[in-house]
Design brief:
It contains 4 helices and 6 strands; from the N terminus they run ββββββαααα. The chain is of the alpha+beta class and about 140 residues long. The strands form 3 sheets. Strands 1-2 form a two-stranded antiparallel ribbon. Helix 1 packs antiparallel against helix 2 and helix 1 runs parallel beside helix 4.
């Protein structure tokens, strides 16, 4: 309040406010902290459906995951066993999020699980092939 010249309450922009739980931001006084979604405060005149926002985030995350999954297959077929790096990265991108957020991202979970299992199976196949090759050479 000191930066507005008001000590312990007063009026700003013609409205009376007490000092208790008021916040000054960009020249406005807000009575309560506003809800935050992905780091962006929402104003009262901007209704946002949180479920719709999470569905959009889920779809975007799933699209990115499937793209990385396909890039992993392309690199695995063309450049050797590099694909698992991408597949495990997709799984890590999902499983490193908080549990509350992961529970709402079902499409992203699907691509993360497929990527993780593909990475595990292909890594196992590579290990078996290496062991058999070493056994045949020795």
């Amino acid at each position: 309040w000191n930066n507005l010249g008001v000590e312990g309450g007063g009026s700003v922009n013609g409205k009376a406010y007490s000092r208790k739980e008021c916040y000054v931001r960009a020249g406005q006084v807000l009575g309560q902290p506003q809800p935050v979604i992905v780091g962006q405060p929402l104003s009262d005149n901007q209704p946002v459906d949180i479920q719709q926002n999470m569905a959009g985030q889920d779809m975007k995350g799933a699209q990115i995951g499937w793209l990385l999954y396909l890039v992993g297959w392309f690199l695995c077929c063309c450049c050797g066993p590099i694909g698992p790096v991408f597949w495990f990265a997709v799984a890590c991108m999902h499983f490193c999020k908080p549990a509350e957020q992961r529970a709402q991202l079902q499409q992203e979970k699907t691509v993360a699980m497929v990527s993780c299992f593909t990475g595990i199976i292909c890594t196992g196949v590579v290990v078996i092939v290496i062991v058999l090759f070493i056994g045949l050479v020795a």
